[in-house]
Design a protein that fits this description.
By secondary structure, this protein is of the alpha+beta class. The chain has one domain (3-159). Helix content is 20%, strand content 47%. The protein has three helices and nine strands, in the order ββββαααβββββ. It has helices spanning 55-78, 80-83, 91-95; strands at residues 3-6, 12-16, 19-31, 43-51, 98-104, 111-119, 122-131, 140-147, 150-159. It has a five-stranded antiparallel beta sheet. A four-stranded antiparallel beta sheet has the order 1-9-8-5, with no helix packed on it. The longest helix is centred in the middle third of the chain and has 24 residues, at 55-78. The chain is globular and about 60 Å long.
């Protein structure tokens, strides 16, 4: 059974652009999407996180809705090409800066394999996939969270068995 052994009390792992980012869970045996693993059906570790709702996230969401309205007007008046790219979700630049370095008690080398941040209905959610899946003999996973590649000073330890 997977169990958190240690984590920040509030689960805040980073503050990105003034918005707190909270660790929300892991799946240590996740089937990686096609094109992410080296072989179809590869498994790995997925780390989930979210931007903590606050006045700033609500303001950014409101601003984003206005950007969408403007974009839609431009598209209707001048066509899709003239309207340009659909406005970026406000959580994307905030959450994409947060990553994690994973180690275990048997020395496995984990590599970032992809993920997703911020989408319709998941504006402030994200997840990153790392390969490979922890080996059967691994009992502990350690997570060191980073912001722009630098440690945030926040970490978690997960017991796998």
């Amino acid at each position: 059974m997977t169990m958190i052994i240690s984590a920040p009390g509030d689960l805040i792992i980073a503050t990105s652009d003034g918005i707190d980012v909270r660790f929300t869970g892991i799946d240590p045996t996740f089937t990686l999407p096609a094109g992410v693993g080296e072989v179809p059906g590869d498994r790995g570790v997925v780390v989930y996180f979210e931007g903590v709702p606050c006045l700033e996230t609500r303001n950014r969401d409101h601003h984003h809705l206005k950007e969408i309205e403007q974009w839609a007007k431009q598209r209707k008046l001048h066509g899709t090409e003239a309207a340009g790219r659909f406005p970026i979700m406000p959580g994307e630049p905030v959450l994409s800066r947060v990553r994690v370095r994973i180690t275990d008690d048997v020395g496995t080398e984990y590599r970032w394999a992809g993920g997703k941040v911020a989408g319709t209905g998941t504006e402030w959610d994200g997840c990153w996939g790392y390969a490979p899946e922890p080996p059967m003999r691994a009992q502990l996973l350690n997570f060191e969270f980073t912001l722009d590649g630098e440690p945030t000073g926040k970490s978690c330890q997960i017991q796998l068995k």
